[in-house]
Amino acid sequence: MTAQVATRIGVCGAGAMGSGIAEIAAQHGADVKVFDVSAEALKGSEARIDKSIARLVEKGKLTGAQGDEALGRLQWVSDLADMADRELVIEAVIEDAGIKASLFARLEEVLDDRAIIASNTSSLPIGRLARTLRNSGRFCGMHFFNPATVMKLVEVISGPATDPAVTNRVAATATGWGKVAIPVADVPGFIVNRVARPFYGEAFTALNEGAAQPHEIDALFRANGFRMGPLELTDLIGQDVNFSVARSVYDSYFGQTRFVPQLRQAALVDAGWLGRKSGRGVYSYDDGQSASEEIARPTEASDADRDLAKQVLGLKAGTLLESGGVLIGLTRGRTAASEARAAGKPVVLFDLIAPDSDGPNGYSVSDESAVQVAQSVAAGLGRAAVRVADRPGLIVCRTLAQIANAAADAVFEQVADEQGIDSALRYGANYPFGPFSFADRIGRDSLVSILQNIAAATGQPMYSPSQYWSAP
């Protein structure tokens, strides 16, 4: 039987996240009450939602009547007793287990026994939060992503005691609000904050190794469909916030090496270089430094360059094409120098190449004699080329392979299924494709080989392929 959508919603916490949740619920027909102990917070929430609705009306996404109706379904209250008639109450207060526990205890005093309590926590275990409730079966996680009015994903987390009917109804409610509701096991980081860790960690590893300049690293990811590169994104999120999540996930998994925090990021936090909010992070926002700094494109291409580029686009990892005595290939997790030693000829290796992009490509060479061939390929593609330090897996391929590896671990440990994880990364992190879609794109056997080669070349067990890839 299809679960019924909850229509009487309570939101505890009138900050940006709570206001966003309340707004999206009201837009989809729910009767919503927003609670906060701070009169100033309530006033700010009302103003924030008024402004947001007005903007939607101005853009034609809502009619004036629809905007008025949505606002008419909202109330702001300072007495928790006003939540007594709510079917579903979503907690969106500070990430402090003690403060949340106090709120839950008070909610249980006023709510009907059948009412659901959900936490928007992004990091605290649902089982731990539920311990203080008299009825822990009515409790689950309902993790929205910021801004809640825009981001599609809602992670619906079942604790050990959660009644399946509760998560079914919460998922149905989120779906009714136009969200993509993904069921998730109660593990540290849930899906997105766990699986996405290598996106940031690998970028700081590359930066620490001097593999490329920050703006080049970010540009390589944008060329592969990402809206923002990992370094500029950490500046936007806040280096302190992003590093705190990295530490939390790492500690929660008792030092599992796939989630190791990066010292280069820790140094930024120690220096107070927190990103946009402090005026400086990876980039300096006071002197106009930008992640979108222009990377020079090659000169006019010849017909031979265009023909060579077309052949390179058709290559698979591990296949080498010869041109002018130089071997050309896509990374398979080895360095260009090691490939050259095995083949007895100079080698140029390219990072992932998105055929429908006009952004830059990364490459490394075994020696200077291969640089001209790399530039010829770039010219034939009509795209800029970024020479990267000769490192196993280069930058983008290595990062995406490790994200896929973390995703595979999550399926193996029954956190969620492949489709759920792909959807979570697409709708919760704005990835252009999910990690399993990437694995299928390059071939799962090829992915395993790339990871094995990176692990061997770096001596780091964190790159060893997940057991999931070899599971029956």
Q: For the largest beta sheet, what order do the strands appear in spatially?
A: 3-2-1-4-5-6-7-8
CATH C-level label of the largest domain: Alpha Beta
Structural class: alpha/beta
Strand count, sense and barrel status of the largest sheet are: 8 strands, mixed
Oligomer state of the chains in this structure: single chain
Number of helices: 19
Which range best describes the helical content: under 10%, 10-25%, 25-40%, 40-55%, 55-70% or over 70%? 40-55%
**Measured distance between first and last alpha carbons:** 33 Å
Mean pLDDT: 95
CATH superfamily of the largest domain: NAD(P)-binding Rossmann-like Domain
Description of the structure:
The structure is a single chain. With 472 residues, this protein is of the alpha/beta class. It has three domains: 179 residues, 3-Layer(aba) Sandwich (Rossmann fold); 177 residues, Orthogonal Bundle (N-(1-d-carboxylethyl)-l-norvaline Dehydrogenase, domain 2); 85 residues, Transcription Regulator spoIIAA, CATH 3.30.750. 44% of the residues lie in helices and 13% in strands. The chain contains 19 helices and 13 strands. An eight-stranded mixed beta sheet has the order 3-2-1-4-5-6-7-8, with helices on both faces. It has a five-stranded mixed beta sheet with strand order 9-10-11-12-13, with helices on both faces. Strand 9 and strand 10 form a beta hairpin. Helix 1 packs across helix 2, helix 10 crosses helix 11 and helix 16 crosses helix 18. The longest helix has 20 residues. The chain is elongated, with a radius of gyration of 25 Å. The mean pLDDT is 95. Keywords: Oxidoreductase. One of its GO terms (biological process) is fatty acid metabolic process. It holds the Pfam family 3HCDH.
